[in-house]
Design a protein that fits this description.
The protein is mainly beta. Helix content is 7%, strand content 62%. It has one helix spanning 137-147, and strands at residues 2-3, 8-14, 17-18, 25-38, 44-59, 67-70, 72-84, 90-108, 114-132. The chain starts with a strand and ends in an 8-residue tail after the last helix.
């Protein structure tokens, strides 16, 4: 992602979600994220985010042609806090809600006389915690320049 202003960040992301308790049903999300930071001049900053996108279904069991897993739209709003420990290390905690749509298709017999599609609406609360060691140089420099623009230079 990229910090556009001290209060606004934009990003793109992907990952992997394993569904239904089995390793064979996976969703690969492709998302865009917008993040708003409250009080950007503070060392510890609260934020609100919204990420949304489409998840592509991936069934790991390719030997079973009668079974397929389709993805669907997802949305994830959240609230969080970023704690800055040093110039390059940050700790983050986030609580959000995750909504995902997916379709499981079972197509038995080659003539497709029997076909069943199960549409799922998956909902869950999400608690994330993370440790960030590295950020883009542009991100750090933009934030420092806007934050320190009124501080006189040392001689």
């Amino acid at each position: 992602g990229m910090q556009m202003t001290p209060q606004l960040g934009l990003g793109l992301g992907t990952g992997m979600n394993i569904m239904f308790g089995g390793i064979s049903d996976r969703l690969i999300p492709i998302v865009a994220e917008i993040r708003y930071y409250n009080n950007p001049d503070r060392r510890h900053r609260a934020y609100a985010l919204l990420d949304s996108g489409y998840s592509v279904g991936w069934a790991a069991d390719k030997q079973n042609e009668a079974y397929s897993f389709k993805g669907g739209w997802r949305i994830h709003p959240a609230l969080g806090v970023v704690w800055h420990n040093s110039q390059t290390t940050r700790f983050t905690t986030e609580l959000g809600y995750w909504h995902q749509r997916a379709t499981l298709v079972e197509d038995w017999w080659e003539s497709s006389r029997w076909r069943r599609e199960n549409d799922y609406k998956l909902n869950r609360w999400v608690l994330k915690m993370g440790l960030l060691f590295w950020t883009l140089l542009l991100d750090c420099n933009l934030w420092r320049k806007t934050r320190n623009k009124n501080i006189p230079k040392k001689r």
